[in-house]
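Second opinion, please. Pick holes in both lines of this record:
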Amino acid sequence: MREYRFAKIIATLGPASSDVGTIRALAEAGANVFRLNFSHGTHDEHRARLDAIRAVETDLGRPLAALADLQGPKLRIGQLEGGSIDLAEDQEIILTPEGAEGTIALPHPEIFAAARAGVVLLVDDGKLRFDVVTATPERIVARTVVAGRLLPRKGVSVIGATLPVSALTPKDRADLAFALSIGVDWIALSFVQRPEDVIELRDLVGGRARIMAKIEKPSALDCLEAIVEKADALMVARGDLGVEMPPEVVPRMQRRILSVCRQFGRPVVVATQMLESMITAPTPTRAEVSDVATAVYAGADAVMLSAESAAGRYPVQAVAMMASIIRDVEADEEFWSGLRVKRGEARADVSAVICAALREAAVALQPAAIVAYTTSGNTGFRAAAERPRAPLLCLAPTLEVARRLCLPWGLCPRVAAGVGGMSDVVHVASRLVREEGLGEPGQTMALTAGQPFGVAGTTNVLRIERIDG
């Protein structure tokens, strides 16, 4: 039987990993989802990368997912007279939208609308810190807490206020339309602050892709449960989150986000600086290995590589290392004993009960595989949320649905077109379980589907069958 890995890997594509050969090597090393980062690159470059992903997918004969990561709103200091300003500690400064004489330009009226005494402005990834003393719609008076040289166009993070701004900029809307036109499978929304941001994106997507909300603003944590409920998945984007709150708080917030996602049955991704040293070195630090393992032990559906695979010198080695760490964690009995989680009331329906029974069947019968036939993909998501200890073969009627199932924990999605009933499911499942090296004739498999067959949202059947020859 082949080795089976449950937690998934997302690899970001970039200058170091855009050709078909490298993308194939990344997939063979363990990448399940490929991230197209729309903060960088042109539409033509992203189209070429997606074409390469699809070519590798066809060559390997298994689905691969593409995730389009939208840039989101970027707040920046405006142009500065003289090109830079050297600021001293405890210096009073004045910021205005236009950068009037003697002031610092901050061309974002939404910051002035939300600012008040006590709000903190972090500039250049936290290298400078300004505490707001007073604020009006035209003028912010602040005091320098962390001093240094202020340069134009440096990023600004606003701590302690929710900005009255959409998470979708005009650039994001153009990128979204393009990403949907070329057929990406997932859309990641950056700098989500409230559930309305996700609702706005969902209206634009119109069911053409699944939606991932990136948690990188402290304000999102104030309404985390509502955001989780509206999104299809979440990402713990620790880079920006670590800028906007004290770094020592980020691990606790990561645990909280994972816990809430597990309770709601939503896939959750842990991202940023996971194997950072492998950008330039062939092996990671022991602390980085522990970081990846900690996310897997906590039940993350996927862990993500950013610059390690996009621009680093060792992209394939980074994916292989991440896969090795995951396999080692999943070989630990304590990993499995810590995966059980209490479900919320929102999951108390027939489909949820069937998927919970799959988990119990895996414990009692130790089947070679669990097989779920899903029309929309929702049954696959629910089965994955239960974390059964058996390979989870997920049969989908179309390649589009199968690709979206590459992200959730444990799912091995495959296309099963033309399936017309449970007898067809048993036959196709037996063949695929054998072909995938998950089981042999005569072994047990647990199957779930819905009656009437092929109707989304009707999962209501659980059968135990023998793998036929």
